[in-house]
């Protein structure tokens, strides 16, 4: 789940429902019937018109009601892609996926990563990706111009005085107002409660009686929400990099910031063993102090960049760049080089890393990941409704997450001014009656702390925890044979790994 600050490599959402008056959705405690819901027959009977979209992929669009509470009052488009199974004679069905976010494009994910899935999954399943409502090619939420997004990401989200606070407030209000102006018609309906219902329409359109699903990060939230609404329609769900649905917005922000601190400490410990470490040769705490010093220095004097686009590498970009590299241990060598260059006055590599996290393309244009991320997060749970509450949470975060806490907390400030309000509260989900659901957690995951996976596995009536002892965000597709075998065997056979299974 992307949600560091306001992006998609992390998940910063808790499992709540959009207000029923806006979405017509069930609350987390209500289960949907396994058959076709009344009044939605036309949507459930759709047959995708698959067309070749190059590289062996097939693409189609589905129609879903904008408002499930009034299905005749407008529609939204859902973009879908699939990579057909190799072994059609032994095909199990479709494996629906979600890469995280909220705001991550499932179409892009399958196009870029589908071929990397294990042989068992490639052979036995059509690999399916979709852009959730408001994301990518599915009636995307839009709020700001690319120039405005450049400024938005450069803003200091660790304010030291009232002027910087006022700048954050005005920028956050402009973000919320821009979303209302450009996407106001769909804005009340892009939350996860509706995206989960869209997934059941997709399941039916794919011809599957029950859903097989592999969700990463925010995708675990979406998958858990689906299971809770449609428990009888669950075949096999893998929730990798889990979010704890019962946490409040402030709890999610604080624990996620702590997760990044844990990951940074692991990076620093490893860095000190390397000959090219820019953090010195002392203790881990001394190495972390050098990172803090770099943040403070760039808060006063931004670094230069050779990208030639006029952007200065502010403290915000330094922190975003570091966070990006913490998602995957394979990025640690790049982070060592980026920090070395930054300490010599060149912030180009950190800025490039930041651009990866927020999906800024080389031409200066952004995908709608950031805007969709904010729109969905702001609907999925309540955020502090006043500036004082945000300030208190940011100050509290400094105690246990001094390098990341304020950035995560202040990054959600637009939700305090959001035009469509949510009054639901976070709560645990059980998905009573669902088939076994596998929840995967990595012990030093920076974005979705391991304790969230343990909590979600315990909350789900049929939850089964699978642990990766290691670093990085999510476990599958990271090259661990033990994880791959356990997940692929479960998805093919519906037999979950034994309780307490740990991969190292």
Helicity range of the residues?
40-55%
Which percent range describes the beta-strand content? 5-15%
Order of helices and strands: HHEEEEHHEHHHEHEHHHHHHHHEHEHE
Find the structural class using helix and strand composition: alpha/beta
**Major pleated sheet:** 10 strands, mixed
The CA-CA distance between the termini, in Å, is: 22 Å
Low-confidence stretches: 1-30
Tally the helices.
Answer: 18
Radius of gyration: 22 Å
The main sheet orders its strands as 1-2-3-5-4-6-7-8-9-10
Q: What's a concise summary of this model?
A:
The protein is α/β, with parallel strands linked by helices and 504 residues long.
Structural notes for this entry:
- This protein has 504 residues and is of the alpha/beta class.
- 42% of the residues lie in helices and 12% in strands.
- It is built from 18 helices and ten strands.
- The chain has a ten-stranded mixed sheet with strand order 1-2-3-5-4-6-7-8-9-10, sandwiched between helices.
- Strand 9 (463-471), helix 18 and strand 10 (502-503) form a beta-alpha-beta unit.
- Helix 7 (192-205) crosses helix 8 (218-229).
- The longest helix has 23 residues, at 249-271.
- It is globular, with a radius of gyration of 22 Å.
């Amino acid at each position: 789940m992307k949600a560091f600050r306001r992006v998609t490599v992390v998940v910063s959402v808790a499992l709540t429902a959009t207000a029923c008056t806006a979405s017509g959705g069930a609350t987390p405690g209500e289960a949907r019937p396994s058959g076709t819901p009344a009044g939605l027959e036309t949507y459930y009977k759709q047959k995708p018109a698959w067309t070749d979209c190059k590289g062996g992929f097939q693409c189609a669009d589905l129609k879903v009601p904008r408002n499930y509470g009034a299905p005749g009052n407008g529609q939204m488009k859902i973009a879908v892609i699939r990579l057909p199974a190799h072994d059609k004679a032994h095909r199990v069905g479709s494996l629906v996926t979600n890469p995280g976010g909220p705001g991550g494009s499932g179409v892009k994910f399958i196009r870029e990563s589908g071929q990397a899935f294990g042989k068992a999954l490639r052979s036995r399943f059509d690999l399916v990706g979709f852009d959730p409502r408001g994301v990518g090619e599915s009636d995307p939420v839009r709020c700001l111009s690319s120039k405005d997004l450049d400024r938005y990401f450069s803003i200091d989200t660790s304010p030291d005085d009232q002027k910087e606070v006022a700048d954050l407030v005005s920028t956050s209000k402009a973000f919320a107002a821009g979303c209302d102006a450009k996407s106001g018609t769909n804005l009340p309906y892009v939350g996860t409660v509706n995206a989960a219902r869209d997934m059941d329409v997709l399941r039916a359109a794919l011809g599957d009686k029950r859903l097989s699903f592999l969700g990463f990060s925010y995708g675990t939230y979406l998958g858990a929400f689906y299971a809770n609404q449609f428990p009888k329609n669950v075949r096999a769900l893998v929730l990798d990099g889990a979010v704890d649905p019962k946490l409040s917005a402030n709890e999610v922000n604080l624990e996620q910031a702590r997760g990044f601190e844990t990951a940074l400490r692991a990076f620093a410990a490893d860095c000190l063993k390397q000959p090219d470490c820019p953090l010195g040769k002392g203790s881990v705490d001394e190495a972390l102090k050098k990172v803090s010093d770099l943040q403070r220095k760039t808060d006063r004097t931004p670094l230069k960049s050779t990208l030639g686009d006029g952007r200065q590498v502010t403290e915000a970009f330094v922190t975003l760049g570091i966070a990006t590299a913490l998602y995957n241990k394979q990025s640690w060598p790049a982070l060592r080089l980026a920090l070395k260059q930054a300490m010599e006055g060149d912030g180009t590599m950190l800025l490039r890393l930041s651009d990866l996290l927020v999906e800024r393309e080389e031409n200066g244009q952004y995908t709608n990941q950031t805007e969709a991320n904010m729109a969905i997060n702001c609907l999925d749970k309540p955020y502090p409704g006043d500036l004082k509450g945000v300030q208190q949470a940011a100050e509290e975060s400094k105690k246990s997450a001094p390098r990341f806490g304020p950035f995560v907390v202040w990054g959600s400030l637009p939700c305090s001014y959001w035009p469509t309000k949510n009054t639901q509260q976070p709560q645990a989900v059980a998905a009573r009656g669902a088939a076994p659901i596998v929840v995967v957690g990595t012990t030093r995951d920076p974005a979705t702390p391991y304790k969230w996976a343990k909590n979600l596995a315990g909350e789900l009536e049929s939850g089964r925890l699978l642990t990766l002892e290691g670093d990085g965000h999510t476990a599958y597709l990271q090259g661990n044979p033990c994880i791959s075998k356990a997940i692929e065997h479960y998805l093919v056979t519906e037999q979950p790994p034994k309780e307490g299974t740990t991969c190292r």
